[in-house]
Amino acid sequence: MYKPFMKKIPAFGKKFIVGQNCNGCMICVDVCPVNNIRILPKGKKEWLDHCEGCLACLQFCPVEAISCGGKTDERPRYHHPNVTADDMLAQKGAAETGRSE
Ligand code: SF4
Ligand code: SF4
Predict the structure, then answer these.
(1) Whose alpha carbon is nearest atom 2 of ligand 1?
(2) What is each CA distance from 89 to 56, 75, 77, 101, in whole angstroms?
(3) Taking a C-beta distance cutoff of 8 angstroms, is the pair 38, 48 a contact?
(4) What are the helix (H) ranges across the chain?
(5) What's the whole-model pTM score?
(6) Which ligand is closest to the CA of 33, given by its number?
(7) Does 10 have pLDDT greater than 80?
(8) Whether the CB of 47 sits within 6 Å of ligand 2
(9) 60 Cβ partners below 8 Å, 6+ apart?
(10) Which of 2, 34, 50, 51 could pair covalently with 13 via S-S, beta carbons 3.0-4.6 A apart?
(11) Could you give the CA distance from residue 18 to residue 71 in angstroms, rounded to a whole number?
């Protein structure tokens, strides 16, 4: 089951939709650990094809503007209460520069 499931993950990103209530904060872009969200003109976003399915973009959006496949609209968002978007960004920066905490 694992291999077929994993093959579907990269395309997962194509299921994300951004609603009209997006405020342009770019937290979704910042927290994506694999830089899978590209910024388009006028602040629109495009999910690329190397999503890892972590859902950080969806869970950290402060206004719940991101939905996935039409199935998440009514679901509560959650991320670990002691982990902030800034923490995610710092960890990503450390990984990209090869630093360890
Ligand atoms: S995190 Fe949410 S509000 Fe901020 S830019 Fe992304 S979709 Fe828009
Ligand atoms: S934050 Fe996670 S779920 Fe969102 S695009 Fe990046 S890898 Fe995919």
Answers:
(1) 61
(2) 11, 25, 19, 13
(3) yes
(4) 2-12, 27-31, 56-60, 85-97
(5) 0.87
(6) 2
(7) no
(8) yes
(9) 27, 28, 31, 79, 85, 88
(10) 51
(11) 13
Residue nearest to atom 8 of ligand 1 (CA): 22
- 68 in Cβ contact with 16 (< 8 Å): yes
The structural domains of the chain, ordered by start, are 2-97 (3.30.70.20)
Ligand nearest to the CA of 44: 1
Q: Tokens in use for 34?
A: 């694999």
What is the per-residue pLDDT across 20-63, written as a single tens digit (0 to 9) for each? 999 999 999 999 999 999 999 988 999 999 999 999 999 999 99
Binding-site residues, ligand 1, Cβ < 6 A:
18, 22-28, 61, 63, 65-66
**Which residue has the least CA distance to atom 6 on ligand 2?**
32
Residue type at position 53: G
Residue nearest to atom 8 of ligand 2 (CA): 51
